[in-house]
Amino acid sequence: MARVASNPLCLHRFRPYLQASQSSPSLLKSTFHYQTKPRKFPTVSCQTSPESSETSTPAEKEVLEPGTVSDDTKREDTGASQDPGLPEFPNKDVNKRIAVVSLLAAAGLFLSSRLDFGVSLTDLSAAALPYEEALSNGKPTVVEFYADWCEVCRELAPDVYKVEQQYKDRVNFVLLNVDNTKWEQELDEFGVEGIPHFAFLDRKGNEEGNVVGRLPGKYLLENVEALARGEASIPHARVVGQYSSAEKRKVRSVVDPRSHG
């Protein structure tokens, strides 16, 4: 027994084994090598300015081990993998603006087509040729009997204006106001009972036909085209639509004998 205890070699043999088992770096590396969850280590970044280093708080940043993927990167990859061709829902404000613009455009188109930017019976009467001059210049003539209170007359004013602008060099356009007592004889001569009443006269002043009331614009256009070409007859000689009765006319005396209104 005294021999074993006094032998220092026996005790020295076990020390390297114990030290290797406690501090072997290869075993620690192998243990951490199989961890799949990424490890994050906080790092501290300090400002270089000495003045602000006392009051500022160090900002912490996350540092990942090599070979690992962060959760933010995974979320970005998931969002990028979605189908980019899917349509996005439009903003409500954009829809409202589009609706307002569409309504304004539709209203403007309707008003421009019906009113022709403000053409009225007064404008037509001012541009019309005096009746006596129209019968003496050797051109065919369109005579319209109208009244300022006639709704159908006001509605057809833009259509009459367009035709007049197209054929004013070859056809006379005359407007006679049924409220003017000056035209009593012409009212009886042309048999005016409703307005608007359009009488179509040839180059010699003879009536070829008439159109009364609200009718499609082609009736007036085709008749004026026939007059301009000097045809013996017009395609629409006796046509009656919705009209205002001439019996409602408000008779007034002639102020200016030269007036054709």
Automatic annotation (TrEMBL):
**Superkingdom classification of source:** Eukaryota
UniProt region (Disordered), positions on chain: 40-90
Keyword Electron transport (UniProt): yes
Q: Principal place where this protein is found? A: plastid
- GO molecular-function term, one example from the UniProt record: oxidoreductase activity, acting on a sulfur group of donors, disulfide as acceptor
Tell where it localizes.
Plastid, Chloroplast
User: According to its UniProt record, which protein family does this protein belong to?
Assistant: Belongs to the thioredoxin family.
Q: What is this protein called?
A: Thioredoxin-like protein HCF164, chloroplastic
